[in-house]
Amino acid sequence: MARTSSSPWTGCSTLSAPPSRGPEALDTISPPARVAFVGLGVMGASMAANIAKAGFRLAVSNRSRGKAEALEAAGAEWAASPAEAARGAACVGLCLPDTPDVEAVLFGPGGVAEGVAPGTVVIDFSTIAAAPTAGFARRLLEERGAHLLDSPVSGGPGGARDGTLTLMIGGDAAAFEAARPYLEAVGKTLTHLGPPGAGQVCKSANQLLVAAGVLAVSEALALGRKAGLDPAAMRQALMGGSARSFVLENHAKRINEGTFQPGFRAELMRKDTRLSLSAMRDHGVFAPATAVVAQMLEALVNSGRGGMDSASLGALVAELSGLEG
């Protein structure tokens, strides 16, 4: 079991699971089982489409029905509320912007909790705070007998489209195994990390590594430009050595070309680095890199670039370094 020190989730030294309801056998949720998906944004719509392609009978719900049109045309059933989507579903997926959105969809009026049956597996693919996630899992189990897995993802819109996302999963191990076919419809790499909230802790670490990498690449490219180096040649040289990374390969190219159409918006990365900073604080981790990255993302959004890709951090660093364009 994953461990941490001084956990604010439980008041003890381990990440604890919600209280047991006794031995429970969960059937594997395989096609053509009826399942549901709530939240059809850039990521969610693609994930839902792959779940339907896997052979599941899919019900979908979203604040605006227009985003469900393509899914409905492909055979998905429209549900007017998350509760309606959850009724009769063996598994319910969520992909929502932030912690309050997840709480509202789970427990608000017309929420998932009104529709789920005991034994249902609810999977939250959102990136939200770990401590509330653990509380949501406990509440859903106690009130409805349903299991909540937190399964934040990495891989971006391309990974969502191709069904190759990396899934970082917290929650009951039996529920994870039962929902494996549903999870495999959206992701290629599935890792069960521990009890509820464990997936969100791992995602906070992931986002820190990505954001810190973008900041480091931004500074490196600015250094090269100020020293008179060709930034494209510099990137190519760095790609040949130990500095090679996904960030250098992809984000540095965006920075050099000045193409910041959003794959992952800066305002969302700011939200995620806030979560990283909170997780570090909650667990008493000395985290100067997290603090610096979080402040730079605040500055990036405040500079008016919140709707651009997070790689626009390179443009901010260049601007602060006295470089044009």
UniProtKB/TrEMBL annotation:
Keyword Metal-binding (UniProt): no
| 6-phosphogluconate dehydrogenase NADP-binding domain: residues covered | 34-194
- Identify a single GO molecular function assigned to this protein: NAD binding
Q: Which domain of life is it from?
A: Bacteria
Q: Show the segment(s) annotated as Disordered.
A: 1-26
The alphabetized UniProt keywords are: NAD, Oxidoreductase
Fetch the Gene3D superfamilies from UniProt: N-(1-d-carboxylethyl)-l-norvaline Dehydrogenase, domain 2, NAD(P)-binding Rossmann-like Domain
Against PANTHER family, the record matches this protein to: 3-HYDROXYISOBUTYRATE DEHYDROGENASE-LIKE 1, MITOCHONDRIAL-RELATED
Q: Per the similarity annotation, which family is this?
A: Belongs to the HIBADH-related family.
Q: What name is this protein filed under?
A: NAD(P)-dependent oxidoreductase
